[in-house]
Write a structure and sequence with these properties.
The chain is of the alpha/beta class and 398 residues long. The chain folds into two domains: 240 residues, Metallo-beta-lactamase, Chain A (4-Layer Sandwich); 144 residues, Rossmann fold (3-Layer(aba) Sandwich). 34% of the residues lie in helices and 24% in strands. It has twelve helices and 22 strands. Strands 1-2-7-8-9-10-11 form a seven-stranded mixed beta sheet. Strand 21, helix 11 and strand 22 form a beta-alpha-beta unit. The N and C termini lie far apart (51 Å). The structure holds flavin mononucleotide and fe (ii) ion (2 copies).
Length: 398
């Protein structure tokens, strides 16, 4: 049964929940699922803004048709070509052959690559408009948030921002769809996990986009994932501003890789010393246990990062390598870094971590703390110094 969900008089929410998929982009675990949001404006002209992932709702087109009550669909606005939103585009064009696809010049190259579609295109430039009758849409190009063709659509009539992935979140919409119908505590961490792993690499471009939209009155934010913001849109704008400025909270993530427990002991030791120094948010993770996306989420949140690895065949432990590669991949910035390690032959783990420090350009708060085998009192001074230096940096504020 379809019960239409109105955002305003002529604007409908047409999103779906995906509780089945295990890995988003075949990589990011979805313990709380994900929502793909699509929006329909039924005006003198009708326009759909983004579609959904193709595997989720077999009746998606039926739902659109039900909302249109026999009218045709005039426009499909493609804010973003990633298949979690453009997935139903081909089926939609087959169902509505006269449908005009609205995008920018970068959109159409990807469109052709995915669907072979080259007809019925309306190319818009930055600031371009589309008149639907009562609603007047304006397009703002926001390249690289997080694909090159990304744009947002601003409904000047009702001050609604259709923001593509920006302001999006993992997590399904379980009954509540609008920000005033949900408990945001459920979403905040998943929103940051989405941001840090998927969009965060392009934080500079997010800042550019936010600057571009500054001064534009936004009453409602309709993202392609997660809740619709109609009561407190400034909250999510402020969060995105904070995250994209790489601003973080005064806490420390201690992430370690350990085969037989010696490096883990060191992690616990350093964490205890941090607590004694007054650091209150300390999160210790075994990188072999916690998926890297959750590690990145916590690392994005906190100012301090301490990495510890056992040595492994003249390298750091491969699971720590994975975290370091991901941190380099997302261009991690503005963290205070500490390194420790345990080894038996040549200290390769901490040497490799040092190479990561250089590659990432993150400043080391103290010399590397390295010990052979287990941590003993005679070797503790370097670990103490690391904790004290880190606490000092953290408590010094952002
Ligand atoms: C497969 C394997 C490879 C290792 N490679 C090195 C190495 O390249 N350099 C080194 O100093 N120690 C190496 N070690 C020794 C461990 O890094 C060392 O014993 C360390 O204390 C183990 O820490 P853990 O108890 O946290 O796993 C290796 C051990 C194993 C099992
Ligand atoms: Fe995307
Ligand atoms: Fe997306």
């Amino acid at each position: 049964m379809i019960s239409p969900i109105k955002i305003t008089d002529r604007v409908y929410y047409l999103g779906v929940n995906d509780r089945r998929k295990h890995l988003f982009e075949n990589m990011w675990p979805l313990p709380q699922g994900v929502a793909y949001n699509s929006y329909l404006i039924v005006d003198e002209k009708t326009a759909l803004i983004d579609t959904i992932e193709c595997t989720v709702a077999a009746d998606y087109i039926e739902r659109i048709a039900a909302h249109l009550k026999g009218r045709k669909l005039d426009y499909l606005v493609v804010n973003h070509m990633e298949p979690d939103h453009a997935g139903m585009l081909g089926a939609l064009v087959a169902y509505y052959p006269e449908l005009k696809i609205v995008g920018n010049n970068k959109t159409f190259k990807i469109l052709e690559g995915f669907f072979g579609i080259t007809d019925n295109l309306i190319e818009v430039t930055d600031g371009g408009t589309l008149d639907l009758g009562h609603h007047k849409l304006q397009f703002v190009l926001t390249p690289w948030v997080h694909w090159p063709e990304t744009m947002v659509t601003y409904d000047t009539t009702e001050q609604i921002l259709f923001s593509a992935d920006a302001f999006g979140s993992f997590g399904t919409l379980d009954g509540g769809i609008f920000d005033d119908e949900i408990n945001f505590d459920f979403y905040e961490s998943e929103m940051r996990r989405y941001y840090s792993n998927i969009v965060g690499k392009y934080s500079g471009m997010v800042q550019k986009a936010l600057t571009k939209l500054k001064g534009t009155p936004v009453r409602i934010i309709c993202s392609t994932h997660g809740p619709i913001w109609r009561s407190e849109s400034s909250k999510v704008i402020n969060l995105y501003d904070k995250w994209s400025r790489h601003e973080s909270d005064p806490g420390v993530v201690v992430a370690f890789a350990s085969m037989y427990g010696h490096t883990e002991q060191m992690a616990d030791y350093v964490a205890r010393r941090l607590a004694e120094q007054g650091v209150r948010d300390i999160r210790v993770f075994d990188v072999s246990k916690t998926h890297v996306s959750f590690l990145i989420n916590e690392i994005w949140k906190y100012k301090g990062l301490i990495l510890g690895s056992c040595a492994y065949n003249s390298e750091m432990h491969p699971m720590m390598s994975q975290l370091c590669n991901e941190l380099l991949h997302i261009s991690i910035k503005n963290k205070e870094l500490g390194i420790f390690g345990s080894s038996s032959w040549n200290g390769a783990g901490s040497k490799a971590l040092q190479a990561f420090a250089e590659a990432s350009k993150l400043p080391l708060v103290a010399p590397v703390a390295e010990a052979q085998g287990k941590l003993t009192p005679d070797k503790a001074a370097a670990y103490d110094a690391l904790a004290v230096a880190m606490a000092g940096k953290i408590q010094g504020g952002n």
